[in-house]
């Protein structure tokens, strides 16, 4: 739609040579010489002034928004005309200071908080005291009977530390949340950003590429809403003077039926989205490497982009080289790369800018976030990745999704608190701004003979990337200034959430240990883990990472140790060494710390931060206690399966996480539950029968009976949790519709 008014003509007359027109809200609208130049306009500004005809041209994906958009721009122009400059407003601007020697933005002074160092030190003290108390019992027992053989139990100390480190850290962390300071959560530090940085005010802003790997997600239900959210952010950034492009790595395009494939390609073309699609696995000998294909998908797409860039760098550009010439050269380079490769599909702008905003296919981003993000990255050249704290985007609103939403928010609250205390920020693999030059710096080559950036030999490619960057001198920073503006999807079903935990457990074992078969010539620990241990990463951060990894092994060992404890406490209670801590004491401690102290600490911290009232926060914590206890209690067998699968080189694969609601009912779910959980349910039922028989069966001899409460309760909890996990946490089982 075109607009012609006296205000527009006046502004264009005042600035005949301007390239853009600044508005009062800080946005800038492009000025094109003629109407024919619209083809090279920045599409996501959704507006352009045409100087030769003194017109305003506006466009939009929705025709109903055209008039409102034109009115808003004219209103901004009128305010710019009639508003007199206010000195107070000028003083309130927070623009980035520029270093006149280097021309770069001056970095903000950011302190290194040491609260986390103190808390980790106290955690290690608690662990050492616990070991000391246990060894004291050994000394007392030896002084009584003189049996020095029990000193062999000291060899279990590394395993005990590995299992109990996270438990001790939770105790110390919860007490710190209740009694310690929380001001650090509202201030900027080396690894944490609570407030956005001063915005850049340079003539040109860095180019941002939004990279989005997708698979077979629904176009209308998943991809379109994500693209709509991204386009709003791109539009705002382009109006602020920046430039951005969206780069989709479509791993499902060559696998879809023709109609769905054509719909995707048309959608990408309509929305100026660049995309790359690789062949199916095994097609003409092509291999989609990796157990989890996201890393190899992104590597392939970036390889095509880099080859196009290499061809463009070989061009000799004349002084009168125009944007039109650049576009033609790009098209030729892209076609040459596709012809040379032969199997890749690609179209649109697949060039990578200064920074990459990595998202998932079910992500939402704030409309005004890119300028703040690039401003912080420009002012902090040591930041390799800026991870955004995220909220949750719910889809189906079932009680299971609501519970996982609460759990995800809890995890992000804990991450924010830990990082604000001075710990290194984690990288979770999405909703993060990546420095492209840093990613290129840590690239590697393998048998495919091209530069790769993401590890295809690890399920946890994000942890591998984080470690390589930190070993190269970069840091990872957590940005919380966007609040819950960044949103991510959570698991919609218990199957997906269970698969997520299995992948995490498999990935942790993959990072730590070689398969047992190779220990003789390769050793137990992987080069990646050894490099992590001896890297320049802070010692306290290493302790935190190791304690996190240890939780998966503790969960995986729970069913084995509880089963052994059932028979030991049932048949030998009173004959065991005091060194032995039975499952009843462990179970009671876990309930006391996680369900008691943890809920109180989280509620008090949210109250102290002004996020919720105390009673509401405490009630919300209690509301989800039983759901999380049931879910975490039923994880053990599945987590140990994933750990052992890697240890013994048993193939284990996972499909893509469901991003949209799928119809299901009782009759569909029952066969699915029986097929997926048959072994865990057999295990649970078998132990329930064993417990009943050994407790009340008349044919069981008296000495073989197990009736002690302290022996039965932990085993009953584990068995019931494993049996009820796929039933009680499966809302579709309660659906009787067709």
From TrEMBL:
Name this polypeptide is given: Uncharacterized protein
Span of domain DUF7928: 1-91
Biased composition (Basic and acidic residues): 90-109
Keyword Calcium part of the UniProt annotation: no
Taxonomic source organism: Ophiocordyceps australis
Residue ranges of domain Glycosyltransferase 2-like in the record: 355-567
Transmembrane portions of the chain: 114-135, 155-180, 545-572, 584-605, 626-648, 679-697, 709-729
Keywords recorded for this protein, A-Z: Membrane, Transmembrane, Transmembrane helix
Region (Disordered): 84-109
InterPro entries tied to this protein: DUF7928, Glyco_trans_2-like, Nucleotide-diphossugar_trans
UniProt key word Lyase: no
